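Subject: two folds for Thursday's group meeting

Dear M.,

Sorry for the delay on this. The cluster queue was jammed most of the week, so I only got both jobs back this morning. I'm pasting them in the order they finished. Each block is the input sequence followed by the predicted structure tokens. Could you check whether the formatting survives your parser before we put anything on slides? The first protein is the one we discussed after the seminar.
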Amino acid sequence: MTDRPMPSFAPLTGVIFVILVVVSFILGGETPDIKDSPQKVLDFYNDNDSEQIWASVILAWGTLFFFFFLGVLRSTLRAAEGAVGYLSSVAFGGGLVMGLGMLSFAGFTFTLADAADHLNPVAAQALNGLNSDFFFPLAIGGGTLLIATGLSAIRSRVLPAWLAWAALVIGIAAITPAGFFAFLVFLLWTLVASVLLWRRAPAAAAPPGQTTLG
């Protein structure tokens, strides 16, 4: 059995992921703060249920495309690492946890919006607390993904050095109080990485040894 190269368009799933996340953010707008009163939280989700449902669904769809991009990234890192490839495995595991974090936020938002007219204010406040502060899977998963990707790419040079070092820096920032801003920069990093990997895709059928980007 021979290995078939991935479709040339596969890296662009990262671009679709970023677009969908941005659309989700725009639709979701500014949600209630964790310190807001229970009634204010409940009123918000009752008044904005349609927008919040769509924001959560689009974020879930974005996560699906993120998993496909994660597969492309893992394959790229794994091919460059060689036989052991432990960093690509660590990156893949971190990405799965990060995806779970995004789906958790999507799920909490969907539940709040869909069930708002059946919740009491205290229940809504509890769910909103989770929707605001359930960030450890996203932060630790994203940090693991990016740190492992950066270390692997710095060693193998499968990505441009500046992109590999950027992954490392963003990954470290992801596990600090600046994690939200690190996630925003991660979206930009993914956009750039997706385009570079897409441009490299035609070289997949070239002879071994042509594994670096630019």
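Second protein, same layout:
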Amino acid sequence: MAATAARLLGARVRAGVVIGAGRAPNGDAPSALETFVGGHPVPTPDSERAGRRALAIAGALAAEESLLVLLSGGASALMAVPADGLTLDDKRRTTERLLRAGADIQALNAVRKHLSSIKGGWLAARTRGPSRTFAVSDVVGDDLSVIASGPTVPDASTFADALDVLRRFGGVDAYPKAVVARLEKGDRGEVPETPKPGDARLSRADAAVIGGRRDAMEGAAREAAARGYQVVRLEDPVVGEARTTAPSHLRLVMARVAGVGRPVCVVSSGETTVRVTGRGKGGRNQEFALAAAEPLASLGVPAASASIGTDGVDGPTDAAGALVDSTTIARAQTAGLGPPGRYLDDNNAYAFFEALGDLIHTGPTDTNVGDLQVILFS
């Protein structure tokens, strides 16, 4: 996105930053832009340096200059500036705790925005000129206030909402004291709220979504049709806890493909969550695939299912997701792996699929539009 904008705008680009996830962005960064390598899914010191540089650029704009913001999924962690009185470690520990507790992106970002000096509209509020945001969405529903925690759009959530998230996901005692203290102060009106709808500071800010999960579905559907499959698209997002959503999703799929000619490809997308209680390794797509293994085998028909993170990174692993088919359970038994439930209980789907050679490795894709599920019946 940055390279394209720089090519189109040319010498009109005076300054800017490009922030990649865990490594420098692919390709040559335009000379007018500084490159940072942030962290994901939790922020790093470089995430903070990048965020502070972004705020500095926004604050230095003249009234007749414009701020162009290009966002993709993951930017909440890549660009971080702790609010006054907080440290990056406070934010990192809070994010990790919420992720392990299974908080969805809306809940997670309601908290993030109230612990930040850049999210929740603060980046656009810093500039005197107009701002224009183009976002590639990894958020179900494409809510611009949730994508990247909405640095350039009004925030309707409140400090009270953020406190409620902590109570629902582990209780306030599970979080850093400084975090709880800030949220409580904000709830009492002692700390300014994030800019709300109608805030004059955002009157010259506008934003639009330019890509999302349906684009990934369209690409998969087009490829499947080219390979001779009948294609069924499920438009409703796949959400919920991965291990419980997968079996129910498979039941829905079976109902939808009844009477459809074979071979058939079912395409869906969304973003599930994982509640971490074990000590293993994996991600939501790997858990989704593993939870589908036994139901898929019980169908008695040739079938295969994959769940993939479109950014190429599933949780804290080097895999994008995993593949299961009608033979997965039998192959696991032959390999002496034991039942899938044992691996699910330990959140250790990676080890299960690594032993079978059924992890999906794409490498980072430099975009993020959520997760994609593909199920094939022959």
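Two things I noticed about the second structure. The longest strand covers residues 264-273. DSSP finds 14 helices and twelve strands in the chain.

Cheers,
T.
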